[in-house]
Design brief:
The protein is an alpha/beta fold. It has six helices and nine strands, in the order E-E-H-E-H-E-E-H-H-E-H-E-H-E-E. Bound molecules: iron/sulfur cluster. Iron/sulfur cluster (SF4) binds next to loops. The site of iron/sulfur cluster has 10 residues, from loops.
């Protein structure tokens, strides 16, 4: 079966694979994929997503690409893996073949096959409906409902937001954190510093602006940390596909 996977990288030190999916159901104005269409942690990450003509892999091709390596952890990321109709089949086949820890990064707009993931990180762009629609082009309600549902079924949940100065900054981050805390104040929350992308009007936040956002989130949540621009994965990756 054809999947939406078009690119795979691997970190040998930590036996971790990264599956990059093609196709998203949001149209975020500040999407990092407008800068990096391939794994941005490669020594030469190449150009933006718009420059790629993807070749989508089958489930068997994904397994074949990973088969020569020890695999302890698999990340499902890129655009949105949940938008791939083959996700359940792929995640099930990988679980059976490698029995690795499977981590899904998703925007939460669709409900994923949660039973196949050991960790699900939901990116909440905003909770104010008009702001979410302005940034992503879609309603926030399903995202919040799915987040509550996933918690209710016992999924291991994390959350993440992008801090954008003057747009989605401390006041909105406080509201997002209040929502997450209404589910469970123990859910880990990561704040990413926005990286400027072509065509969007915003700049990168300063360290002080990040600190304000972290402080706002900490009013509600117990496990908040920030990922400042320029921070890299702690391991090297090579390209498999
Ligand atoms: S949900 Fe993520 S991948 Fe999709 S458009 Fe938004 S930032 Fe980009």
């Amino acid at each position: 079966m054809k999947t939406h996977v078009y690119h795979i990288t691997y970190g040998p030190e930590v036996a971790t694979a990264h599956l990059y999916f093609w196709g998203c159901n949001m149209r975020c104005r500040g999407c990092i994929r407008l800068l990096y269409g391939w794994d941005s942690h490669l020594p030469d990450p190449g150009g933006p997503k718009q420059a790629i003509n993807p070749r989508l892999l089958t489930v068997d091709e994904v397994i074949e690409a990973l088969a020569p390596y020890p695999v302890r952890r698999i990340f499902f990321l890129g655009d949105d893996a949940s938008a791939d109709p083959a996700l359940e089949e792929l995640a099930g086949a990988l679980k059976e073949r490698f029995d690795a820890e499977q981590v899904l990064l998703t925007n939460g707009l669709l409900l994923p096959p949660f039973h196949l993931f050991d960790d699900i990180q939901v990116s909440i762009k905003a909770v104010t409906p008009a702001l979410h629609r302005d940034f992503t082009g879609v309603d926030v309600a399903p995202v919040l409902e799915h987040f509550q549902f996933l918690y209710g079924v016992g999924a291991s949940l994390r959350s993440e937001s992008i801090v954008i100065p003057g747009y989605i900054d401390a006041p909105e981050i406080r509201r997002i954190a209040a929502f997450i805390a209404s589910v469970d104040a123990e859910i880990p929350y990561r704040l990413d510093a926005y990286i400027s992308v072509p065509g969007a009007p915003w700049r990168r936040p300063t360290m002080d602006e990040m600190a304000l956002a972290v402080g706002a989130a900490c009013q509600y949540l117990r496990h908040v940390h920030a990922l400042h621009s320029g921070m890299k994965r702690r391991y090297e990756v090579t390209r498999l596909v």
